[in-house]
Amino acid sequence: MKHLIDPMDLTTEEISEILDLADDIILNKEKYSQICQGKKLATLFFEPSTRTRLSFEAAMMELGGNVLGFSSADSSSASKGESVRDTVRVVECYADIIAMRHPKEGAPLLASLNVDIPIINAGDGGHNHPTQTLTDLLTIRREVGRLDHFTIGFCGDLKFGRTVHSLIKALSRYEGIKIVLISPNELKVPDYIKTDILDKGNVEYIEVKSLENSMPELDVLYMTRVQRERFFNEADYVRLKDTYILDMNKLQNAKEELAILHPLPRVNEISVKVDDDKRAKYFVQALYGKYVRMALIMKLLGLEA
Ligand code: CP
Q1: In whole angstroms, what is the distance from residue 247 CA to residue 46 CA?
Q2: In the chain, at which end, N or C, are there fewer CB atoms within 10 A of the end residue's CB?
């Protein structure tokens, strides 16, 4: 494993190793506090982020390393026309590992073909978000207790939601996963996810419109935001943005052990009243994101405690 561009770059064994390491970091933070001394992480974010960028930076700091980078294309020389290829070739002179977010699908892959240091895809357009997937898998494993034999509902913008695409890919390799795809017609999961991932992997799935009707059978509910920035016109966004709003009323028929995940940011799709319900796991999920990124940085740099 040199780069992480697509969740399928990792075998299920490698995923287990990363999650095991994250679990150990959570238990033994001091043991890892100097492991990246003298190492630098560059965060190259050509698109906005709160969790991914800051959790990567916190992760590197808690490993004893340093961070540098930029948080928008406007504050980098991309605004003067510099290519991704040239940007990463220069940053390679200053850093040991790069986490990159870019609005164009494939930009982190292109970067990985042009440098010798590890590149981590921190989200590329509507395509993939593999470190969110590791975060989601760690959350499910810790909060549900297993990565197999459960029913997960994905609800909201399944068309543009890269976190959904990446998590479906990753889960397609585990036994006994049933997927309920809950969306309006306009925001259904792309066909390639159905043909290349779900059908090929013999994963049981259904496409439905009603969140309420699906609720009783779910072990995990993965809520998503309607991705305004990827819509071609504002009128469509306004029409679709509040299709699903999870509130306490809708949770009446849910399992007591349901785990509610959301990659965040949230807009309207989960009522703040749900935050106090023990089934709401989306803030601890954001915390787990830091630990799983610590584990990933260590793995990609070939470091052991
Ligand atoms: N989940 C996630 O990718 O959040 P940010 O866009 O804030 O990084």
Answers
A1: 34
A2: C
Do 87 and 31 fall within a single domain? yes
Q: What are phi and psi of 172, to 5 degrees?
A: -65, -15
Q: What is the pTM of this model?
A: 0.96
For residue 49, the CA-to-ligand 1 centroid distance in Å is 5
Q: 193 lies in which domain range? A: 131-285
Looking at the structure, tell me whether residues 73 and 13 fall in a common domain: yes
- Domain match, 109 and 135 both: no
Q: Is 161 in the pocket of ligand 1 (CB under 6 A)?
A: no
Q: Which of 100, 132, 225, 261 to mutate to test the pocket of ligand 1 (most atoms within 8 A of CB)?
A: 132
pLDDT, tens only, 15-28: 999 999 999 999 99
Based on the residue annotation, tell me whether 101 is a catalytic residue of this protein: yes
51 is catalytic: yes
- Mark whether 29 is an active-site residue: no
Separation CA 28–CA 284 (nearest Å)? 18
Q: In what order do the strands lie in the sheet with 119-124?
A: 66-70, 40-45, 97-102, 119-124
Q: Do 193 and 269 lie in a common domain?
A: yes
Q: What is the pLDDT of residues 64-85, one digit of tens each?
A: 999 999 999 999 999 999 999 9
